[in-house]
Amino acid sequence: MIVTFRTKAHADIMIFGDIAITLLKLMGHSGTVPSALLADEVPAALERLRTAVAAHKAMVPKAAEDVEDNDDADESSVDLAQRAFPLIELLAAAATAKCDVMWDQ
């Protein structure tokens, strides 16, 4: 499953379903797909996501220091901050423009 996030203030982004649901839950949402955030809910969700990413980053040691470069690195080696970045950008644009954010499969 791929989840597509949409808002009038930013280009659509697509995120793999399991990661999208994790990010939605970090935003304080139930993780339901499809669903939406109203414009007035977006700033709080953005702040919760940024806080969760920062907390995760502080708890996890940098992979570059712990693991040698490996061409066969598995999916779990991608940092949460990297996975969340496109959604953070979308939410920030929506918050600035005071737009709703919707997502579906």
UniProtKB/TrEMBL annotation:
Pfam families reported for this sequence: DUF1840
Q: Which InterPro entries match?
A: DUF1840 (IPR014991)
Name the UniProt record assigns to this protein: DUF1840 domain-containing protein
